[in-house]
Amino acid sequence: MADTDNLKDTKDYYLDVPAKGGSFHVKGASALDWGMQNRLARVFRPGSGRTVMLAIDHGYFQGPTAGLERVDVTIVPLLAHADALMCTRGILRTTIPAAFANGVVLRASGGPSILKELSNEQIAVDIEDATRLNVSAVAVQVFVGGEFETQSIHNLTRLVDAGLRHGVPVMGVTAVGKDMVRDARYFRLATRICAELGAQFVKTYYVAEDFETVTASCPVPIVMAGGKKLPELDALTMAYRAVSEGAAGVDMGRNIFQSDAPAAMIQAVGRVVHERMKPEQAYDLYQTLKREKVGVGA
Ligand code: 5RP
Question: For the whole model, what pTM was predicted?
Fold first, then answer.
């Protein structure tokens, strides 16, 4: 029986303290439901509003990739430094410790390998499996201007509908075909289409000219894609410029796991993204951590 005797009187109403309604720290997400916001908060740190996402999903279309041959050996030790991990469900279930408590952004589109037309993707994960895995978001490639443009956008909208039903955000990934011009005009088009059609955040490439117009015209957060491996200082500079010009963080793969010192690199990227550390200073930090092998280990 419930113990209802001698209940303490209520009295602490804090009548002079205005109720905290609370605006949410993720751009464009204030009107979303609690579950969706909770998942977004596992990706975007409430303190800075930004994220360092580690992308290791490359195997979904290109098989084992340099640096990802043994995810258990090379990637698991980096997880402590990642706000979120972008990966496939195969790697998540087989190799990522279930105790990993930060965000997981699940690759949810796929189909063609590097041997075929890459834009011919379909949805590759049921939303029910995404919730079973308790992921923070699902990611879908969108090929604006590509051969299977409409199909890939349809993949996005179907995932957005499913995500809204289950409280799972969708990250639209703007994929650029070999023949497409990578400029601000193209990325404004592609990112805005993703956001207009319901993506809660968008991954896109950095461009040196007018990137701030890409972030400004997109009503949801933009996360900068890493792209091919660059010298560490260049990658840190690109990350610094992207966040200074409005990106809500990075989703980097090869520039971290193909670095000479991945643990040092992800920590340096973290300082750039969350603290706006200048690239040169972050590079010094990278070199120090590399020398001292700091942060290496699970
Ligand atoms: C391509 C992807 C990738 O699969 C991956 O996440 C790319 O990472 P990076 O280019 O930083 O190595 O999303 O668009």
Answer: 0.94
Longest CA span, the chain = 76
Q: 116, 203, 229, 290: which one is catalytic?
A: 203
Q: Are 37 and 24 in contact (CB under 8 A)?
A: yes
21-69 pLDDT tens trace:
778 999 999 999 999 999 999 999 999 999 999 999 999 999 999 999 9
Q: Ligand 1, atom 4: nearest CA belongs to which residue?
A: 58
Of ligand 1's listed atoms, the one at least distance from the Cα of 86 is: 6
Q: Which helix (H) or strand (E) holds 259?
A: none
Q: For residue 1, what pLDDT is reported?
A: 62
203 catalytic residue (yes or no): yes
Q: How far is the CA of 98 from the centre of ligand 1 (A)?
A: 23
DSSP β-ladder status, 122-123 and 109-110: antiparallel
Residue carrying the six token digits 């113990």: 3
Atom of ligand 1 nearest to the CA of 175: 14
